[in-house]
Amino acid sequence: MGNGLVDFALGAAVIAAPQHQVPILAGGAAVKLVRLLRGRRKDARQAEDAARSSDGGAAEQVTLAWEHVSCSLTDKHGKTKEILKDLSGTARPGRLLALMGPSGSGKTTLLNALSGQVPFAKRMHLEGRLTMNGQPAATAAFRQGYVQQEDIFYSQLTVRETLMMAAHLRMGDASQGSKEALVERLISRLGLAKAADTVVGDKKTRGLSGGEKKRLSIGCELIASPTLVFADEATTGLDAFQAEQVMQTLKDLAADGHTVVASIHQPRSSIFAMFDDLVLLSEGGLVYSGPAADALDYFASLGHKCPSHYNPAEFLADLISIDYSSPESEASTRARSAKLQAAWRQPHTSTPAASTASRPASATSQVVPFVASGRPCGWPRQAQLLFSRSWRQISRDRATNITRAMTNINSAFVFGAIFWQLKRTQTAIQDRMGLLQVCAINTAMSSLIKTLNVFPTERVIVERERTKKSYHVLPYFVSKLVAESPIGAMFPLLFASIVYPAARLNPSPARFGRFLGLLTLESFVSSSLGLAVGAVAPSTEAALALGPAVILVFIVFGGYYVNGENVPRALQWLPKTSFIKHAFQGLCVNEFEGLEFEAAKAGLPVTTGQQVLDRYSFYDRSVGQAALSQGRILLFNYWLTYCILKAKKPRYLTMETPKAA
Ligand SMILES: Nc1ncnc2c1ncn2[C@@H]1O[C@H](COP(=O)(O)OP(=O)(O)OP(=O)(O)O)[C@@H](O)[C@H]1O
C-alpha cells in the first residue's frame, strides 16, 4: 500500500471506529506510522550519504549548461502557448548571470526550469537538456539554493533566530558552536549586523526593510552551502539603494566562485554594470545570451544603437518589449521582437556566448563556502526545534494576541449586557438558548478567522522548507499544535469568565468548568477546520472566502435553527458533522439539567430544564458525549490537514529529452 493510502486508511479507521475501539486503533496507527517513518528516515539518510559521497563534500564549482529548453502550455481547446522557445545557454562559476526581459517573457519559467522547479501543471510540457559540469543535471549532486521572489518568514523571529533555525534544521550533525559561528559569519557578510536582533515583522509588527528581508532570504539559502544560486526578481519592490545592496550580495557570491543566475526587471545602470553575463528574453525567445558588456555592441550591429548617457538596461527593455498601447504599435513591436529572435538564431561567427567560455571570472576551482554543509537533524530534534519556533511565533505576536483578546472581551461584554442576569421566567428559556447558541457561534468564528489569516502563509514557508528536505510534516504539525494550545485556550477563558457571571448562567463552579471546557474544545475544533481549509486554499484571501462559507452550513445545523429530527434524510449526516451543534448541545445540557423555571400564567408551562432539552431533541445527550463528538471531529480535521499537507508537497515537471535528440 502506498504511503498516502496507509495514512488514509489509518485515519479513516480511527474516525469510523466505534468509540471504544478508537484508542486501540490509534495505538496501532501510531506504531505503524513510527515504523513507516523510521523506514523513510533511513532511506532519506542513505540518499543523503550517496549524494555526499558523490561530491565528496567538496564545494566544487559548477558550470550549468542548458540546450533546447522549451516549455509549452496547451489549453482545453488544444491551443498551444509557447512559454520558452528552444533556449540554450551557459551559466559559469564565478559569474553573475542576469536574466532580463519584459513581464511575461518567461524569466521565472526559465529560472524554474534551470533549477528543476517548474511547478507541475497538467497541460504543460517541458523539454530540454541540462548538464552540470558535463553530467546530466538529474544525476549531478551539486547543491543549489533558490531565492524566491516572495520573502516569507515567521514574522516574530529575529534575523539571527531565523538563520539559526535554518542551520539547526539543515545541519543537524554540526556542533552548536560551529552553527553559531557560521550564522554570525553570514550575518556580517550579508550586511545584517545592525538588524541581527530585529524581528522579521509583518503588516502588524514593524521589522526588517524589504532589502534586509531579501538578504535574509539569500542567507537562508546559503546555509545549505549551494554551489549554484538562483534568485528570482531579487530587486523587485526595493528602492534603488536596497536593490543595489542585494545585487552586490549576489555579485559577491559569484566572486566567491558560486554560479549565480538572477532574473531582474529593468535594473539601474550601476546594477547593470555588475552583470557578467546576460540572457535577454522576449516572448519566450532568446534575443541575446553572452557577456553583458558585449550586448550593446551586438544590438548596434543589428542597427539598434543605444544613445549615449542612456541606461543600457532601459534601452534593452524598450527594444524587446511589446507595446500594447495600440494595435499598430503591438504589431510593429512584435515584428521587431520576432526579427531579433530570428537574428539570434543565425549562426554567430564570434558569438558573445562562445567568447565567455574562455574567460571564467574566478581563478579558483572551488567555491568559497559560507558554511559547511550538513544533514538534516533527526525527528525528535526537528520536533523540538519546530516547537520552539511555533512557540516564539505565537507567544511574541502581541498584536494578534491583543486583538484576539480584545475581540473576545468585547463580545463577552456585549453578550453579557444583552443577556444581563437571566431570570428563571418562561421567556428567559429562549434567552438562555439564544445566548448559548451565540456563544458557540462566536467561539467558532473567532478561532476560525484567526487560523485562516495565519495558516496559508505559514503553509507556504513549510512547503518551501519541505522542498529543501529540512523536516517532515509530522513533527512540524504535532509541535505546532502543542505549542499553540496554551495561548489558544486563553481566549475562551477570557470570554467565559465575563459572559458566564454576567448572564448569571447556572451558578455552580463545576458547571462553569464544563462550560469553559466545551468552549475551549470547540475553539480548537474550529481552529482545526481553519487548518484544513487553509491547507487546501491557495492563498489567505481564498481561505478567508472559503472558511466562512463552510462554517455557515455548520451554523445552520447548529442545533438551534433546525431540529436534527426534521432534517431531510439525505442531509442527516450534516448535523452530525456540525461541531457547533455538538458544542451547543453540550452547553444546553450543562445549563438546563436540573434547572427549574417559574410556571407560566397561561398556556402549557415548561417548568424543568429537562423539558427544554426534550423539546430540542437533546434528551439522550450528555456533556461527555458532546465533548467526545467534538473530539472526533477535531481528530478528523487534524488528520485531514496532515494528509493535505503531505499530499501538497510541491510537484515539479520533469524535463523531457527533446524529440530531435
Ligand atoms: N502554470 C502556468 N499556467 C499558465 N500560464 C503560465 C504558467 N506558467 C507560466 N505561464 C505564462 O507564461 C508566461 C511567462 O511567465 P513567467 O512567469 O515565466 O514570466 P516572467 O518573465 O517571469 O514574468 P514577470 O516578470 O511578470 O514575473 C506568462 O505569460 C505566464 O502567464
Describe the structure.
The protein is α/β, with parallel strands linked by helices. The chain has 3 domains: 3-55; 64-143 and 226-356, P-loop containing nucleotide triphosphate hydrolases (Rossmann fold); 379-647, no CATH class. The protein is 55% helix and 10% strand. The protein has 22 helices and 10 strands. Helix 1 packs antiparallel against helix 22 (623-647). The longest helix is centred in the C-terminal third of the chain and has 41 residues, at 427-467. The protein is elongated, with a radius of gyration of 30 Å. The relative contact order is 0.11. Residues 73, 83, 101, 103-109, 121, 124, 265 line the site of adenosine-5'-triphosphate. The site of adenosine-5'-triphosphate has 13 residues, from helix 3. It comes from [Myrmecia] bisecta. It is found in: Membrane. The chain crosses the membrane at residues 485-503, 515-537, 543-562.
